[in-house]
Amino acid sequence: MCLSFPAKVIDVQDSIVFVDYGNGIIEPVLANGFEDLKPGDYVIVSYGMIYEKISKEEFDEILNYEKEINSVIRNV
Q1: Domain carrying residue 34
Q2: What CATH number should be reported for the domain holding residue 30?
Q3: Per-residue H/E/C for 52-67
Q4: Per-residue pLDDT tens for 16-25?
């Protein structure tokens, strides 16, 4: 099983990309060959590496899905 998380790109420094997973804490991850990243882009991160670049709409959809899952888990 692979754990992947949506994140917003905050800064890019060579092959290191600083992302925010939505909790306000900025963490470094590897660009993993994505050379066109810039602040404001949205990505999927898995095991400290960028796995995929996504749209803002996809990012929002994933976050909403996560909120729904958390709500269901809390009510079980």
Answers
A1: 4-74
A2: 2.30.30.140
A3: EEECHHHHHHHHHHHH
A4: 999 999 888 8
